[in-house]
C-alpha cells in the first residue's frame, strides 16, 4: 500500500530517474549554464574595458567537477547537521533538497556552500523545527542571516515547491515491526540493534544517487540487509518476495560503495578555486556586471515610483463631482 501511494506522489513523478536520465539532467544543466556564464563573463570584461575575447575567459566547470562540489558540500551539510544536533529527518530532507536543487541549477550560478546552509534552514522550517535564524547562524562562521535567506525563494522555485520528501526511516521502522509478526522467533534486542545500525548506515549515505533511483521502502530494506543479511533474507522468504532479493543486494552494495568512497578534499578544493574565477558575475556584488544591473534596476524602480506618483497626482486634480 505504501509503495502504491509513493508511486502516486510528486516525489516519484518528478524526482525518480533512471541512471541515464539523471546523467542527462546534470549534463543539460552544465551545458546550458556554461553558455550563459561565458556570455556574462564576456559582458563583465567589456564593462571593465578589458579584452572581451574567448581566449581571456577562465575555464568553466565540467559536469564531473560540478558533481564533485555538490557531493562534497552534501557531506559537509550532513556533518553540520550532526554538529547542530538536528533530527535525522531534517538532515535527510536538507541533503535531498540540496541535491535536487543542483538538478535544475549550476554551482557556477549558486554558491554550493551558501545553498547548503539555505537548504538546511529550509528543512528546519518544512519539518516544523523552529530555529531562529540568528541562532542558526551562530554555527556558521562569517555567514549572515541575509546570506542564508537570500536564495530561499530560488531554492523553493527550483524544487517546484515540492517540500515534502519521502524518506526511508519510517519504512525502516515499519519493516522491523513487521519482522516481529512474520518471524516472531527473532529476539527484540536484535531488531532494535538492526534498526539503529541500519538507520546510521542510511544517514551516512544520504549523498548517494541511490535516492534518485529507488523508492524509500526498498532503500530501507537494503539498509536492513546491509546490517543483517540473514535476517533480511528470512523476512523476504517468509513474505514470498524473493524476487526483490537481487535488487536489495544491489542497492545495499551501491550504498556501501558510497559510504566507503572517500571524497577527495583536495580535488574539491581545486574545483572550488576554479569555481571562484568562473562564478556567475551577476552573483558577485563587486563585479562590473552586477553593479550595472543593480543600477539599471534601481533606475527602473525609481522611474516606476515617479510614474505612480504622477498618476495619483493627476487623479487628485480631477473633480469627482464635475
UniProtKB/TrEMBL annotation:
GO process terms (BP): DNA-templated transcription; regulation of transcription by RNA polymerase II
Region (Disordered): 299-322
Domain Cyclin-like, first and last residues per copy: 75-157
Stretches assigned to coiled coil: none
SMART domains membership: CYCLIN
GO cellular component, one term: transcription factor TFIIK complex
Single GO term (MF): cyclin-dependent protein serine/threonine kinase activator activity
Alphabetical UniProt keywords: Cyclin
InterPro entries for this protein: Cyclin-like_dom, Cyclin-like_sf, Cyclin/Ssn8, Cyclin_C_2, Cyclin_N, CyclinH/Ccl1
Compositionally skewed regions (Low complexity) per UniProt: 301-312
Superkingdom classification of source: Eukaryota
Family designation: Belongs to the cyclin family. Cyclin C subfamily.
Protein name: TFIIH complex cyclin Mcs2
Amino acid at each position: 500500500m505504501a509503495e502504491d501511494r509513493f508511486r502516486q506522489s510528486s516525489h516519484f513523478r518528478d524526482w525518480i530517474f533512471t541512471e541515464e536520465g539523471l546523467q542527462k539532467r546534470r549534463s543539460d544543466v552544465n551545458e546550458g549554464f556554461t553558455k550563459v556564464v561565458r556570455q556574462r563573463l564576456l559582458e563583465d570584461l567589456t564593462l571593465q574595458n578589458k579584452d572581451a575575447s574567448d581566449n581571456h575567459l577562465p575555464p568553466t566547470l565540467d559536469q564531473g567537477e560540478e558533481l564533485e562540489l555538490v557531493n562534497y558540500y552534501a557531506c559537509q551539510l550532513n556533518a553540520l547537521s550532526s554538529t547542530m544536533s538536528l533530527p535525522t529527518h531534517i538532515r535527510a530532507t536538507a541533503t535531498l533538497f540540496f541535491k535536487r536543487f543542483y538538478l535544475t541549477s549550476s554551482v557556477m550560478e549558486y554558491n554550493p556552500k551558501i545553498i547548503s546552509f539555505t537548504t538546511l534552514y529550509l528543512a528546519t522550517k518544512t519539518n516544523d523545527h523552529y530555529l531562529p535564524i540568528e541562532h542558526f547562524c551562530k554555527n556558521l562562521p562569517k555567514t549572515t542571516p541575509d546570506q542564508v535567506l537570500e536564495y530561499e525563494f530560488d531554492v523553493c522555485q527550483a524544487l517546484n515547491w515540492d517540500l515534502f520528501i519521502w524518506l526511508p526511516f519510517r519504512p525502516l521502522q515499519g519493516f522491523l515491526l513487521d519482522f516481529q509478526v512474520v518471524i516472531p522467533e527473532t529476539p527484540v534486542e536484535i531488531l532494535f540493534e538492526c534498526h539503529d545500525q541500519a538507520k546510521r548506515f542510511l544517514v551516512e549515505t544520504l549523498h548517494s544517487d541511490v535516492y534518485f533511483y529507488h523508492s524509500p521502502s526498498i532503500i530501507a530494506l537494503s539498509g536492513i540487509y546491509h546490517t543483517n543479511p540473514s535476517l533480511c533474507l528470512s523476512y523476504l522468504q517468509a513474505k514470498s518476495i524473493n524476487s526483490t532479493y537481487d535488487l536489495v543486494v544491489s542497492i545495499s552494495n551501491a550504498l556501501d560503495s558510497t559510504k566507503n568512497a572517500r571524497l577527495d578534499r583536495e580535488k574539491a578544493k581545486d574545483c572550488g578555486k576554479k569555481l571562484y574565477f568562473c562564478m556567475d558575475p551577476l552573483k558577485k556584488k563587486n563585479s562590473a556586471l552586477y553593479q550595472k544591473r543593480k543600477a539599471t534596476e534601481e533606475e527602473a524602480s525609481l522611474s516606476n515610483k515617479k510614474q505612480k506618483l504622477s498618476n495619483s497626482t493627476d487623479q487628485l486634480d480631477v473633480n469627482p463631482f464635475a
